Amino acid sequence: MEKTVKILNETGLHARPATLFVKTASQFASDVNIEFNGAVSNAKSIMNILSLGLKKGDEIKIVAEGEDAKEAVEALVNLINSKFEEK
Amino acid sequence: MKGTGASPGIALGKALVIENEPLVVEKKEIESTEKEKSRFLEALEKSKEQLKKVREKALKEMGQEKAAIFEAHLMILEDPELIQSTTKKIEDEGLNGEYAFKEITTQFVSIFEAMDNEYMKERAADIRDVSDRVLRNLMDQPIIDLSILDEEVILIAHDLTPSDTATMNKEKVLGFLTNIGGRTSHTAIMARSLEIPAVVGLKDITEKVNTSDFIVLNGETGEVMINPDEEEIQKYKTMKEKYEHEKKELESLKDQPSITPDGRKVELAGNIGTPKDIDGLLKNDAEGVGLYRTEFIYMDRDSMPTEDEQFEAYKEVLESLNPKPIVIRTLDIGGDKELPYLHIDKEMNPFLGYRAIRLCLKEQEIFKTQLRALLRASIYGKLKIMFPMISSLEELLEAKKILNEVKKDLDKEGIEYSKDIEVGMMIEVPSAAIISDILAKHVDFFSIGTNDLIQYTTAVDRMNEKIHYLYNPFNPAVLRLIKMVIDNGHKEGIWVGMCGEMAGDKRMIPILLGMGLDEFSMSPISILPARKLIRSLKHEDMKKVAENVLSMGSAEEIESYLEEIFD
Description:
The structure holds 2 protein chains of 2 kinds. By secondary structure, chain A is an alpha+beta fold. Chain A contains 3 helices and 4 strands. Chain A has helices at residues 15-26, 46-52, 69-81; strands at 2-6, 31-36, 39-42, 59-65. Chain A is globular. By secondary structure, chain B is of the alpha/beta class. Chain B has 2 domains: 21-138, PtsI, HPr-binding domain (Enzyme I, Chain A, domain 2, Orthogonal Bundle), CATH 1.10.274; 267-566, Alpha-Beta Barrel (TIM Barrel). Chain B has 22 helices and 15 strands. In chain B, strand 14 (495-498), helix 19 (509-515) and strand 15 (519-522) form a beta-alpha-beta unit. The relative contact order of chain B is 0.08. The model of chain B has no long low-confidence stretch (mean pLDDT 91).
């Protein structure tokens, strides 16, 4: 299960959005990874996610494998599309 | 000594040097990888328990926003990559837990430190803080506990970690001094939120100071003295009293009107550039925004901002300050502010060239996109639209015509906007000031932009050091123009404001008040001091001062007259 999305919120995957992203990914049993610029990063690792330095407009692929893969990808895509409920 | 002033205030007291020497982590023989792994995991658990306690304390004492940092620290401890890489290293290379963990965290620290971003650099400090705790637990080393302090001290450290600042007993801490850090480092931010005076970036203060030395520090200027003489101590004591007295006085002026003792009320507003500045407006009790520069939305990027992006930036400010008035200035690009993606040819005299409203009237799509975004945002607060650099009646009428076209478009599309938006213009070109009697019939307000008005009136390039002495706001010609604009505005029943540096200048405020200025817009930090000043000046007296000033022939004469009556 995979899906490509674009980061929409102003601040990118920093601070609160990054925390929210990792927390959401960690709720699922599946392995969840992000593909960006040819590298694969663990979506449940705050250090990996932050070190990508994702900015507004960057395109990432979310790849999940496991029993709840579909739900995991959906939840993360929704989070990004909702701009992390930023004001 | 001098460092970076990180949190204002004066502190005097005994030093406590925190010896947080870097841990020496050695490679050691281990009995079994299994045992080593569980030792590491135990230390992780122990660190988590400690951090949860720190977080609770921070939540209680510093609020949710500041406690969030420990939430982030806990996440680092739960990071699967960090844990797996460490256990894998123990297993594959037969390393001891502390050595393996140190290697892994060092990797991450260098990644974050190399990133070209302040926020990410600060994360390196987080990882170090967390890693230090785990290592100390692994090596049975004591973790410095600042919650037990017997006497009042000034803390001296290489750097204070977030856990240090969260756990320490604030009642006993008079100030901080650190070797490293800048205005945006953890220590600085924490110090400001705790209102503890602090100086950071002192390089080797931990080596220069011994525990129990007497320290004085000024968190505003960054000055620090070690074991000063009695005279210096007295000087700092007086400064401290004065600072605290003033702070209290300004604090008490919040929610008070900006009114003279004889009843002349004016509006003190703030100049801002991005929605990030809202905090400063609220903290300093701005009565509105007199100038919201929209250039920042257009800068540091490679294409035009979309209507939606602009809408969000305008809405945020309007909404957070509603119902206070927000004057948003339409795009003022050109001059010294360039946009690479606009591809404007280099000009001989950019300040006299293709800029601001001149550009917007030619590149109408850019202008219309901005006006649409402004109108759409207008329903979220009290918007006033202001055109920059108007130098003739034709330009003003043309700009207003385009605004009406955009309104009609929105009507057709059934998009809502406020029906009572005031439309005004900046007075920053002498030709506009001179015909302000005519222009006043076509706008709801004037706002005088002094930085440009001075340079255009006196023909002085304000960037040119050689003629800087000619750039003087007390130039009598400039003051006469200002008076003329205020009078012409009032004759037509419109309000007149000022959004240049001059409006917040405490030497200028009495004159402007006397001339009848209605709105003063300045850096938010200047608002409360300006309010204090206005509440001490009689309007009737200032009218006479202004009258006297306007009869004088040179800036020098005006300045010495003001010095004489106000000092």
